[in-house]
Amino acid sequence: MDPKKVDEGKMSGDGDIGSVMGFSGFGKKARTFDFDAIFEQTRRTAIERSQRVLEERQKETQMEEDGESSKSVKPSVHSQKEKLAAASSRVHESDSSSGSDSDSDSELIGPPVPPQHAAQEDEDELVGPPLPPGYSGSTAHSDDDDEEEAQDDDDDDNPVKKIPDTHEITLQHGTKTVSALGLDPSGARLVTGGYDYDVRFWDFAGMDQALQAFRSLQPCECHQIKSLQYSITGDVILVVSGNAQAKVLDRDGFNVMECVKGDQYIVDMANTKGHTAMLNCGCWHPKIKEEFMTCSNDGTVRTWDLNSEKKHKSVFKPRSLQGKKVTPTCCTYSRDGKLIAAGCQDGTIQIWDRNLSVHTKFHCRQAHTPGSDTSCLSFSYDGMTLASRGGDDTLKTWDIRNFRKPVNVATGLTNYFSMTDCCFSPDDKLLVTGTSVKKDGGNGKLVFFDRGSFQRVYEIEVTNASVVRCLWHPKLNQIMVGTGNGLAKVYYDPVKSHRGAKLCVVKSQRKEKQAETLTQDYIITPHALPMFREARQRSTRKQLEKDRLDPKKSHKPEPPVSGPGRGGRVAAHGGTLSSFIVKNIALDKTDDSNPREAILRHAKDASENPYWVAPAYTQTQPEPVFAEESEEDEEADKEPEWKKRKI
């Protein structure tokens, strides 16, 4: 077969395919590329370009240095060129040495390293972009910078510097002791309770500088409020008062649940459904949002479930060394919720495992003076330390791993209340509590102790009354204080604190709106005929705004004129007859309560000096002729009626 014909057939076939597919070139040999040569050419081009850029930059910097006095002698352009050449030669040598092994990690890709950065890498092996040309190569700071950094480090290490006490606001709860404080987890709302049976709700975002509570109620009628606490989700509030039944309210103060009352005639308190005596304290579980705990004078600590109000969940019964019933005065959960601690009236602190209610896990017999009320127990954020505030004027810390004796003791902290608080700072380095004072006996203080050394490092004089409740919120970094004279104070720092009180102090006080009254009664007649239908009454506010623009309606009434009168106005007691009569009527002090006496008072004067009726009839009036009465007739008239009847 002729090869020419075969080639012609192929070409015709390629033409057909090209017309169908839309492109040609079928059957041609593909072009081959030498990637090594391409990479080498690209690398050399990049090196040359970078050298040109560096030379231009060096010329510019040299021209700037000629115009200014340079502080440090810099290398000349020639030396830098030599260094660049040496660097490029090193690059060429490395390329030639690594030509055989293309996978070597030592091969440089891209432009050469600037000389300043190369010198720094040789000395310190710094990581990051190269330093600018005008920067002095030393990395050491000046003495001033070192002192400032050291000062900042000291401030960070000193926990006293973190206390937010530069500013404060005062919330007026009432006139009696604020015995309960509660702040929701987000720090948006504060709730206060007191000896006046009131619970007040405060919204930081909704308040202005007037600092008024948006709701006040008495959930437990005539019982003092002992404790208030928001749940971990912040949607409900536990209210513990002086009665035997704890209540749970929602965020707006409406009742959600009320614990059942137990049978006081049953001896074993474990067999009753609820408490039978006054409550002392209560708190929510830190992990389970439906569980809370209460302790009472009936000698029990009970846990409850929010969904089952008919019966408690479990019962813990504190016992003395002799096995007798002991009254718990305060209770709390550990941070992980696995332990339950209670402070008792016999001075003991007893801790149970939450799932084992029979025997105590930790028990300290002589934690505080017997007979004094342990007012507060608080676990540290790390869960290893327990702080107890005693009625014996002491504050103690305990290591629960060695619970026989206290780690630190502070004395001389007067305590007159059974709910005086103690709490840890958010960084766990400070411990805070309040002191009590008698009336006109000085100022109540908020005292701060260092957790490690237990030295009194700081104190704040709050007011001339006892400091009962204190709360240091970890998110807001603000301290809430409840006092014995009905105040709730909030301490904050504009820099270190967040939200909370900072939201309401920047809002200007709202102007009070005038009382809006209906201008006229509006009768709704939907089926009346159009001619009898009244026009729809517009809003009172708009009508008041229109009246305000009306010069006649908005004109202030003129005050009454005193004296002879001025400006064309006559005084109220002017020369007119009506004003004279009104004045005399107002001055008439006679008593007309008995009309007969009031008329007869003028009878003698009317008979002696007739003025109205008698002179008109003087000519026609006959003279009266009366028969003279004898003495016998007079005596007969004086006789009684029964004698006359007999006659």
From TrEMBL:
<feature type="compositionally biased region" description="Basic and acidic residues">
    <location>
        <begin position="50"/>
        <end position="62"/>
    </location>
</feature>
<feature type="region of interest" description="Disordered">
    <location>
        <begin position="534"/>
        <end position="573"/>
    </location>
</feature>
<keyword id="KW-0853">WD repeat</keyword>
<feature type="region of interest" description="Disordered">
    <location>
        <begin position="1"/>
        <end position="23"/>
    </location>
</feature>
<feature type="repeat" description="WD">
    <location>
        <begin position="377"/>
        <end position="402"/>
    </location>
</feature>
<dbReference type="InterPro" id="IPR015943">
    <property type="entry name" value="WD40/YVTN_repeat-like_dom_sf"/>
</dbReference>
<dbReference type="GO" id="GO:0035861">
    <property type="term" value="C:site of double-strand break"/>
</dbReference>
<dbReference type="Pfam" id="PF00400">
    <property type="entry name" value="WD40"/>
</dbReference>
<feature type="region of interest" description="Disordered">
    <location>
        <begin position="50"/>
        <end position="168"/>
    </location>
</feature>
<dbReference type="InterPro" id="IPR020472">
    <property type="entry name" value="WD40_PAC1"/>
</dbReference>
<protein>
    <recommendedName>
        <fullName>WD repeat-containing protein 70</fullName>
    </recommendedName>
</protein>
<feature type="repeat" description="WD">
    <location>
        <begin position="321"/>
        <end position="353"/>
    </location>
</feature>
<feature type="compositionally biased region" description="Basic and acidic residues">
    <location>
        <begin position="534"/>
        <end position="558"/>
    </location>
</feature>
<dbReference type="InterPro" id="IPR051858">
    <property type="entry name" value="WD_repeat_GAD-1"/>
</dbReference>
<feature type="repeat" description="WD">
    <location>
        <begin position="171"/>
        <end position="203"/>
    </location>
</feature>
<dbReference type="GO" id="GO:0005634">
    <property type="term" value="C:nucleus"/>
</dbReference>
<feature type="region of interest" description="Disordered">
    <location>
        <begin position="619"/>
        <end position="647"/>
    </location>
</feature>
<comment type="similarity">
    <text>Belongs to the WD repeat GAD-1 family.</text>
</comment>
<feature type="compositionally biased region" description="Acidic residues">
    <location>
        <begin position="143"/>
        <end position="157"/>
    </location>
</feature>
<dbReference type="InterPro" id="IPR036322">
    <property type="entry name" value="WD40_repeat_dom_sf"/>
</dbReference>
<keyword id="KW-0677">Repeat</keyword>
<feature type="compositionally biased region" description="Basic and acidic residues">
    <location>
        <begin position="158"/>
        <end position="168"/>
    </location>
</feature>
<dbReference type="InterPro" id="IPR001680">
    <property type="entry name" value="WD40_rpt"/>
</dbReference>
<feature type="compositionally biased region" description="Acidic residues">
    <location>
        <begin position="626"/>
        <end position="638"/>
    </location>
</feature>
<feature type="repeat" description="WD">
    <location>
        <begin position="272"/>
        <end position="314"/>
    </location>
</feature>
<feature type="compositionally biased region" description="Basic and acidic residues">
    <location>
        <begin position="79"/>
        <end position="95"/>
    </location>
</feature>
<feature type="compositionally biased region" description="Basic and acidic residues">
    <location>
        <begin position="1"/>
        <end position="13"/>
    </location>
</feature>
